[in-house]
Predict the 3D structure of the following.
Amino acid sequence: MTEYVVVILCVAALAYYFLTKKGKGNSDDSALDGPVDHSRYAFGREYPESWNALAFKLMSRKAHAGNADAQIALGYLYANGLGVSTDVATAIKWYELAAENQHPVALFRLAGLYVDGAGVAKDESKGVNYCLQAAKLGNVEAQNTIGNVYSIGAFGTKQDLEESLYWYIKAAEQNYVAAQIALGNRFAETGITQDFAKSDYWLRKAAGMGNAEAQYRIGLNYSVGTPIQAVEHAIAFSWFLLAAKQGHTIAQYNVGYAYLTGEGVEKDALEAEAWLKLAAEGENDMAQFCLGTMYDKGIGIAPDQAEAFKWFSLSANQGNEAAQSRIAEI
């Protein structure tokens, strides 16, 4: 959750107190229970418009007094039409004022606007510069973003893998999962930075934060082996299962295949069918092919040629050659 949204959230909590507990005697706090990701969902969708209006009033007063947190919060309200009519130009004005006060969130927000040309003349160089300033001030999203930029030489920059690595590490050290996964990938790649121990370290950090992709990648490492990890199918299965339970489609396929073949877990055709179906419904072509094969051959389940043809067809339509060959034979 970005800093300026936290400011608005605090104002909303204050508004909730005055508008419900003191104003109406309503003791229902359910609207504030649990975490709310306001960086993804419009603030006004989570709270009544009257709260947004109060947030606008309070933030406006503080912003005009020079408070940088309030300036970025006011910009957010204008940009999203919360408590006030949408006005991107005015939002940018407040972001720029906050940026002049070295507010890292404002700098990062402006970076995105200039790169996209949203409400301002497109200027990728200026956008990258704003992002770099935010990164230097410790903004974790900016650090990860600038790592991405230098990783591929985006937005007119020159590719600089060493600089990219520096910023990924900065973000990863702040527990930014995307940067931790990027480091897991980078240290596993062939080259001067290859270091499987460091790759494993960062993947486990991300997995420990509950990230399904990291859990899957650790499972994959145990499944095929690395210079520091022997093949351990049972351990691989346990990591795949963690990721699969979070909806990771490839992990779901791997879990289903393990139950089908008994690789790392006792064979169980019904479990295999269930997990392969989840992956197949997620458009994994290998899962669709395996599921078609189970129905075609009656592997642990009753044969069903209609179901077999359906899943073979779906797999074949995605370019799976084995499925295409099977369709041709039917």
